[in-house]
Amino acid sequence: MEPAVFIVSAVVVLSGALGVLLARNPVHAALFLVQTLFGVAVLFVLLNATFLAAVQVVVYAGAIVILFLFVIMLLGVDRADDLGIEPIAGQRPLAVVTGASLLGLTLVVMLVAVDGSTGVRAANAALGDAADNTRRLGEALFTDMVYAVELTAILLTVAVVGAVALARRLKGPLQPIPVEAVAAVPADEGAPDLPASQDPSPEGRSPDDTASGDPA
Amino acid sequence: MVVTTGWYLALGAVLFSMGAVGLLVRRNPLVMFMCIELMLNAVNLTFVSLGAELGDLGGQLSVFFVLVVAAAEVVVGLAVIVAIMRRRSGATVDDLSVLRG
């Protein structure tokens, strides 16, 4: 049973990866990516990592690929990519040679040279069976690794703020806010100003901006 | 026939190499990002399989953090791509080789 599941999901994973490499249309590449991610999720189940399998489907296939598709649709770059153009002479053969040597290197190191893993077996963080995998992960995350979890929370917040700041549509060229204006407005007076100045921007500005942006 | 850890490691190596080749070959920045996701998934698979072999929870914990960092990376990267594409639509990475303000 296990070899059959492994082989089928390995075929799914590798054909999906090949699809990402060769698909001319970015939308197709994203769908092939979903196929690969599902295959990896099945392999996680096979390795008793049930929680990660669920997270793989929910976060990767459910959120990240959707984000990709959103951006593809938003930018309208879903037309076919011309794979015939080779901008740098010899780039493709060199890339294939690099990939093949990378593959050979990793295979030799991981399978032949050191004969599998060289680590010692875990002393304290033992891996449970599939049934209490989630409980053990949660316990480890919120006791031993609580600071790391807090740091990833900060990282996600910074990423969201940064993404909004980057993708925001600016009216004109960036201009620094005058220091006197910031210093002159008291804190409680500045607050009611904000919603009023932000309100018309999402509704009123975006349609004519896209219209004027298209011919340019 | 028994599925050993070596099978998973080999699959991870193949997947990683395919992602690397895709990253070098493709010119669309979005597809290049997808290839980075392929490489991250290959590493995740390696983490989990070695963790299973050693009976260590640390492999799965590492994958958890890789997932979070990958999500943050994709969010920021796609925002950068949106900002670039808004200025010059249909740009490939070859058009962006000159980083002038």
Radius of gyration of chain B: 17 Å
Q: What would the principal axes of the Cα set say about the shape of chain B?
A: elongated
Mean pLDDT of chain A: 77
* Principal-axes shape call of chain A: extended
Q: How much helix is in the residues of chain A?
A: over 70%
Number of domains of chain B: 1
The total of helices of chain A stands at 9
Low-confidence stretches of chain A: 189-216
Q: Biggest interface and which pair forms it?
A: A-B, 87 and 74 residues
How many strand segments of chain A? 0
String of helices and strands of chain B = HHH
Rg of chain A (CA only): 25 Å
Structural class by sheet pairing and helices of chain A: mainly alpha
Task: Give a quick summary of the entry.
Chain A has nine helices and no strands. Chain B has 101 residues and is mainly α. Chain B contains three helices and no strands.
Features:
heterodimer; A: about 220 residues; mainly alpha; 9 helices; B: about 100 residues; Helix Hairpins; elongated
Map the helices and strands.
The complex is a heterodimer of chains A (216) and B (101).
Chain A: H1 2-22, H2 26-46, H3 50-75, H4 91-113, H5 133-142, H6 146-167, H7 179-184, H8 187-198, H9 200-213
Chain B: H1 5-25, H2 29-54, H3 58-87
Note down, in words, how this protein is organized:
The complex is a heterodimer of chains A (216) and B (101). Chain A is an all-alpha fold and 216 residues long. Chain A contains 9 helices and no strands. Chain A is extended. With 101 residues, chain B is mainly α. Helices cover 76% and strands 0% of the residues of chain B. Chain B is built from 3 helices and no strands. The mean pLDDT of chain B is 86. At the A-B interface, helix 1, helix 2, helix 3, helix 4 and helix 5 of A face helix 1, helix 2 and helix 3 of B.
